[in-house]
Amino acid sequence: MKRAVPDLLVVGDVCLCEYTDHGHCGVIQDGEVENDASVYLLGKVAVTQARAGVDLVAPSDMMDGRVAGIRKALDAAGLSRVPIMSYAAKTASAFYGPFREAAGSTPQFGDRQSYQMQGTNADEAMKEIRLDADEGADILLVKPALPCLDLIRRAKAEFGSPLAAYQVSGEYAMIKAAAQRGMLDETRAMWETLYAIRRAGADIILTYFAPTVAELL
Ligand SMILES: [Zn+2]
């Protein structure tokens, strides 16, 4: 990808769930997610991606200490120039549904709730974001976007920039599906949501609408 389009910013999603047969984001031992073994592997994934040419690694797994672990692994491999965009506040959400279906990454047993945050506690979310910031994350990401506008707002106020927000598959799909049924104007609904995310304080927006937006801007 970098060879074909050198100017394109390529972000590597660092996680294990795409490569585990059980679909969990980490190593499973005795039915439990083994945090430190997972962090070790995440470091290796990040280094592999950086060597392949990604501009930015984005750990999405939510293991404890992964930002520091990945930073250490990258630095040790002479890749200290590669920044980390951490999924700092990734709340458990129904809006991940379409992606999981497409990626086949729904866990085969249990769910991700032991390592994904419940969306109900904003103070807890700020604590998680602070941990990632302290561990050396260069960009902090909040996900999903629309159901977490308040978290985006607070994170921007508390941690400054750069702050990213991820408009996830379900947020995209619900606009698409409603537009297909003639229930709303797709382009206007798209802009409205993107403006809201921006207004809340996001410096960067990750969205499936990106190709459309790039044409319109
Ligand atoms: Zn994962």
| Structural class by sheet pairing and helices | alpha/beta
Order of strands across the biggest sheet? 5-6-7-8
Tell me the CATH topology: TIM Barrel
Distance between the termini: 23 Å
Q: Tell me roughly what share of residues is in helical segments.
A: 40-55%
Q: Please indicate the percent range of residues in DSSP E strands (runs of 2 or more).
A: 15-25%
Bound ligands, named by name, code or SMILES: zinc ion
CATH architecture label: Alpha-Beta Barrel
* CATH secondary-structure class: Alpha Beta
Strand element count: 8
Number of domains: 1
Mean pLDDT, rounded to whole units? 91
H and E order: EEEHEHEHHEHEHHEH
Given the C-alpha coordinates, what overall shape results? globular
- Largest beta sheet, briefly? 4 strands, parallel
Unreliable residue stretches:
none
- The CATH homologous superfamily is called Aldolase class I
Can you count the helices?
8
Provide the gyration radius in Å.
17 Å
